[in-house]
Amino acid sequence: MIVYQHQYVSETALRITKIIYRYQSCWHICDVIFSYQYPSDYITLRLLPSSLPVYKLFIDLYYDDFDTYRNVYHLLEGIYLQFRNMLFHKRKLLKNHFVLGFVPSSGNFNEFIQPFISEMKEFEQGKLMKVNGQDAWVIADLGVVTADLPQGNDMAGVLRHNAMKGCHTRLVSYNSLTDFNQDLQKISRYHYVTNYQFKEILRENGISAKKHLGSQYDLRPQPSILDNLKRDRHLQTLQNVYHSVDQ
Predict the structure, then answer these.
(1) Record's superkingdom (predicted)?
(2) Range 169-208 burial, b when 16+ CB lie within 10 A, else e
(3) Cβ-based neighbour number of residue 221 at 10 Å
(4) Of 10, 29, 61, 64, which sits 20 to 30 A from 247 (CA to CA)?
């Protein structure tokens, strides 16, 4: 039995404490904490009866804000869904982008998305449905989240891009964003590490204390509402390349 150091390890198990990786044509050794977990390491699913067919869906979420204009500008946020199971040429079709709804400038994203979160949690465990007139289990999970640069950081629970380390996938300082020779293995953000940091933040008493500790980790005082679903907040929140360059 081989398990990672950050997991529960029995006395009879072989402990892996270091990993070897290649960087700039040289081999390096680092702590095992600087490695990504497989989804099976932190996600458990209910075993479904094998007598019925099982359909698995991956749902991508798009979150975008834009201006509407009539005499004055108004900010409007749009949330769209797409099924990643579709072939790429079909996903590009406008008819296969499904509008979940719009959030006005006075609205609250968390309140709006809560019904979607609740329904997705049911689908994560499997839901018995009729498919072509036949009973079947349908499982759905959140695929990737795509958003503008500020909202993307919100979805990952990371402070926005004007923070010292405002990248939601790497622990890279603002002044080093254009440095292409960085050791990504050591500066990447890892989901399970961020989980521990959020637990520390939430244990603090008072909003000011939470914000202070969060600023040390470059994290928001509260994790994203999407963390109620089974996902990796860093790997499944895509970088918006255009806005990264634009900013």
Answers:
(1) Eukaryota
(2) bbbbeeeebeeeeeeeeebbbbbebbeebbeebeeeeeee
(3) 19
(4) 61
Q: Contact, 63 vs 147, CB < 8 A? A: yes
Structure token pair of residue 179 = 């440095």
Question: How far apart are alpha carbons 234 and 44 in whole angstroms?
Answer: 19
Largest CA-CA distance found in the chain, in angstroms, rounded:
71
**Which contiguous run of DSSP H or E holds residue 211?**
helix 207-217
Quote the strand ranges of the chain, DSSP E: 2-4, 14-16, 18-23, 26-31, 54-70, 72-83, 98-104, 127-131, 134-147
Tokens matching residue 46: 């209910």
Measured in degrees and rounded to the nearest 5, phi and psi for residue 108 equal: -125, 125
Q: Determine the Cα–Cα distance for residues 67 and 215; give it in Å rounded to an integer.
A: 30
pLDDT tens, residue by residue, 11-62: 666 677 788 888 878 888 888 777 777 777 777 777 777 788 989 999 999 9
Amino acid at 226: L
Are the beta carbons of 166 and 150 closer than 8 angstroms?
no
pLDDT digits (tens, 9 = 90+) for 87-131: 989 988 999 999 999 988 778 889 999 999 999 999 998 899 999
